[in-house]
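Notes, p. 3: input format for complexes.
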Amino acid sequence: MTAHAPTGADSEVGTLRTVLLHRPGAELQRLTPGNNDRLLFDGIPWVARAQEEHDAFAQALRDRDVEVLYLTELLTETLADPDARATAIGTALSGLDLGDTMRGYLAGKLGDATPAELTHYLTAGIRNDEVRGGFGLVTSLLPHDAFLIDPLPNLLFTRDSSFWVRDRVAITSLAMPARKRETQLTELVYSLHPRFDAAPRIHGHQLEHVEGGDVLLLSPGVIAVGVGERTTPAGAERLARQVFEAGLAHTVLAVPIAQERATMHLDTVCTMVDVDKVVMYPNVADSLTAYAVTDAGHADDGSLLLAVAGAEPFLVAAARAMGIDRLHHIDTGLDPVTAEREQWDDGNNTLALAPRVAVAYERNTETNARLEEAGIEVVRISGSELGSGRGGPRCMSCPIERDPMPVG
Ligand SMILES: NC(=[NH2+])NCCC[C@H](N)C(=O)O
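Output follows (408 residues plus arginine):
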């Protein structure tokens, strides 16, 4: 355990030192053909194989001297504290579906649990047929397979439930009902685990929707935020206000993306692989635009004024904000069908370990070949099971410490 609060990240590509992952577990066993759509999975993963794939991902990171933290380990350590337990139980049981009888029963069950058992209940959830009869109206009338506490299969995608901008951690505000509870857990860990020393914050789950998969730290001071199925226009504005007020950035680029499952986050179509290079889904490379938002000072009443420029091509607006001649787009040169297939399988969702070194799914052979031709070292991982939740190496990782972005 380090004594210092994490230093966070000021870019997408500074050498990765510490990352937060979630090893998929019992929560994936909850997926059935009847609930997988609602729980945002496109299939029913083979859990043991998903774990093997994830372990190999974690090992590939450790092999590059990255410290891997696991969300559930941090959570279990946090839940050793009685106040943290009380908060966790209170928030998990705060929904209006339970009724007082069931809530009282579950409060007792969770209250008696060890920290590790409590982590299990909070992540894998509790189904109605797992409580024994005699607990009143709610359990009698709800379907046997209804969840009293929802499982969180998308915890795997740690990118979305928190992200760091320099030394501040953002607890996000997740848009989809199936993911809302995830931030109860990240909130708890960042607030109460000693490792984080109550790290300074921006954002929060009660604010406008912003998900970490939409947020790209293009360079120190320049943040791109996708606006689409998840992050709302108001979420992008809220993020801009906060990073300007805190002196974390001078420009926020709001980037509209199609409100579709295939492009649910900006990082499904574009990720950075070098200080001045992105890999981008070819079918949007020419059409992606950005609205540059900058700090325009304060009004008389003290509120922050935002200057919003008109839409421009994304790569042009980004290069200007970053103060570089060009933000290069690695042209994967793929035909539209191959491009669409590999985008669906998260070919563009790479995790940079350092400039010109990126983790990618091995199955996207064409995209990876083009990355290598462009001088990027590709660390390949398999993801046939992990990918059924529609997320790649970037989605499955939340960088907690990166070295400052190298110049040039
Ligand atoms: N940053 C990302 N692209 N995350 C992918 C999240 C996938 C997840 N199943 C969802 O639909 O929310």
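Residues 40, 154, 157, 159-160, 176, 179, 213, 264-265, 267-268, 389-391, 395 surround arginine (CB under 6 Å).
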